[in-house]
Amino acid sequence: MSCWALLALKPPPLGKTRLSGLLPGAEREHLVLEMFDRVINALQSAREIDHIAVVTPEPGLLPRGVVAVADPGAGLNHALDAGRREITARGARELLVLHADLPTLTSREVDVFVRQGRRTGLALAPDHHRQGTNGLVLSLPSAFGFRFGTASLALHLGEARRCGLDATLSVLPGFAHDIDEPADLQHLPRSSSGCRRAPLPAPRSTPRWTASPKIFLPLHSTERG
Q1: Using 50, 70 and 90 to split pLDDT, how confident is the model at 98?
Q2: 47's torsion region: left (phi>0), alpha (psi -120 to 50) or beta?
Q3: Which residues share a beta bridge with 54?
Q4: Pick from 59, 108, 129, 169: most CB atoms within 10 A?
Q5: What are 100-158's pLDDT values in tens digits?
Q6: Can you list the domains of the chain with their CATH numbers?
């Protein structure tokens, strides 16, 4: 079975603007590229991933072996739809969608998540607020619609019901800890071993940190009421 990972990468200067109070433009751009490298490294080391595709207007940023998909320029969900069409045409039968700002993601977590999705045809990885969706595993072909954005976890669970899918929810630390707000920088590792770029930048001031999220065992959407 051919399993593809799919990401979307916007031009780095346009990324992580909510961190502008802590990191100037050049450092935010570096942060975007470093986190992207870390995610690609985890995917390349994962046993369950056969191929990687990235929807981006900047194909020159991609490492060798990663498939570039042209960005249609209509937002994240349209970009991911374009990527899904491309990899389905290339023979994909399983799809892992994830964000490019998961700096602690490991190859082991990728493998665990893909296997969980394989059991029911759909798995969702919430963010640490349990409101957003940082990862999604889907069997192909599928009429499931991407609903990334505000409160996407609830929207994706609704989409699962519409499609008659029993979604598995899986909270894994590397998928839960994305970097969007200043408080999220507490989850930023300082080592850059194995990455192509220099170490991640340190913030200019100390952010207000949030409490560490609890880790929940995988459960099915029907068990949540």
Answers
A1: very high
A2: alpha
A3: 7, 68
A4: 169
A5: 999 999 999 999 999 999 999 999 999 988 999 999 999 999 999 999 999 999 999 99
A6: 3-224 (3.90.550.10)
C-alpha span between 77 and 185 (Å, rounded): 26
Bridge partners of residue 142, in order along the sequence = none
User: Mind giving me the DSSP string for 145-165?
Assistant: PP--STTHHHHHHHHHHHHT-
Q: Which residues pair with 126 in a beta bridge?
A: 133
In the chain, DSSP finds a helix count (H) and a strand count (E) of 5, 8
Length of the chain: 225
Model confidence, pTM? 0.80
Cα three-residue angle 66-112-198, rounded to 5 degrees: 45
DSSP secondary structure of 101-125: --TT--HHHHHHHHHHHHHHSEEEE
